[in-house]
Amino acid sequence: MMNSSLIQKYNVAGPRYTSYPTVPYWEEEQFTRTAWESSFVKSFNESNGKEGISLYIHLPYCEAMCTFCGCNKRITVNHNVELPYIQAVLKEWSLYLALVDEIPVISELHLGGGTPTFFSPEHLELLINGIFKHAMRGTKAAISFEGHPNNTTREHLKTLHNLGFNRVSYGVQDYNLEVQKAIHRVQPSENVARATNTSREIGYASVGHDLIYGLPYQKLEHVIYTIHKTIELRPDRIAFYSYAFVPWIKGNGQRGFSQDNLPSPDEKRQQYEVGKQLLEDAGYIEIGMDHFALPTDELYLAMEQQQLHRNFIGYNASNTQLMVGLGVSSISDSWYGFSQNVKSITDYKKLLDQDMIPVYRGHLLSDEDLAIRKHILNLMCHFETSWERDGINYFNELPDVLIDLKEMESDGLLELHHDKIVVPESGRGFVRNICMAFDLRLKRKKPDTQLFSMTI
């Protein structure tokens, strides 16, 4: 069990590091649409013939608001919005295709939201066929979507499987009714079981469940019950996330309760430690931060082969350099730069009508950014990093970073060697704090207000 004094010492606001630099530290004033397009083309030419590219498609619509969710979403029961939105996404894809001469090879495609299964099977089929009309599927492409257990139908699952989808993840969060009501996500366990079993029956190679600890009114016994119910269904992989309470960012959805309604930091960490032990006892193996997988799942195999990758989608087995985000608010990553689409559907369509890729902000990485990014990616995926194995991993302020890490070493959170850092089992719960020592942008400009959730 994690030391209580260490929790108090290191439980500070910090990034989750799906990127470096993190979004609040992007140099937006130096970013232009033209520069982003050049960065996209450079990365495409380097990677398309090798590992291929990743696509993330944001489908923002939901019929109800879930208060744990930090995604850009639109709440509506009007399904007439489906077709115009899909047509807009396909228009954006065509603008990217016009920038390159080769046919893209898609190694990873993920539908996120919002609620992708808000869309009808017919409209999802139209979307995917439109994407692959001018693209090739990689030989081992990972094609996945996020399903809502309450509205993912057999027809959804059959249609998407026939289109090549081989992985699905379901948002479970917690099985306690009081907690479900607090987060506006009431779903009986029977719905989760039906969706999981139907997915397997149809032929999905990997079925995942997303769980959250630290939720409003959530107690340790709720987490234990949820883990036991999850183990009964034995999903191939499990995301076991820490609840990010950031009402100043997520707005009214998180203002229906206060910090007093949440587990204390010690209680929250106990929820994770006990949940982790139950999962490991059941045969699951911890992957990076917040993820667990069975030894038969490709996420575990990627970790074993040092191929595990992390981007804005999360952990994945497709180690692609280029990720293109389509749809409102989607973030793209060329490795050399990031861009984010406008968040308003009206603005999104307006820019597309002008034949403009609908980005509104981004960041172009410096040589220092690239070196630090690699270190943070290594730590988040492999719990170690070296500055002698690869020349790009060195940066001028590395000696100062190593001095800052000395205290963490004395606390038993990491091991400092002459050429590398290794994070042992005892330090893995603090990996975000360790990465923060490398985050020079955060160090040079401490935020005046809280930008991030707590690390523990």
Describe the structure in brief.
By secondary structure, this protein is an alpha/beta fold. It is 38% helix and 20% strand. Strand 9 (285-287) and strand 10 (291-293) form a beta hairpin.
Descriptive account of the structure:
By secondary structure, this protein is an alpha/beta fold. The chain has two domains: 23-326, tm_1862 like domain (pyruvate-formate lyase- activating enzyme); 367-445, Arc Repressor Mutant, subunit A (Orthogonal Bundle). 38% of the residues lie in helices and 20% in strands. The protein has 17 helices and 19 strands. It has a nine-stranded mixed beta sheet with strand order 9-10-8-7-6-5-4-1-13, sandwiched between helices. The chain has a three-stranded antiparallel beta sheet with strand order 14-15-16, covered by helices on one side. Strands 17-19-18 form a three-stranded antiparallel beta sheet. Strand 5, helix 5 and strand 6 form a beta-alpha-beta unit. Helix 4 (121-132) packs parallel to helix 5, helix 8 (220-233) runs parallel beside helix 10 and helix 13 packs antiparallel against helix 16 (431-438). The longest helix has 17 residues, at 265-281. It is globular and about 55 Å long. The mean pLDDT is 91.
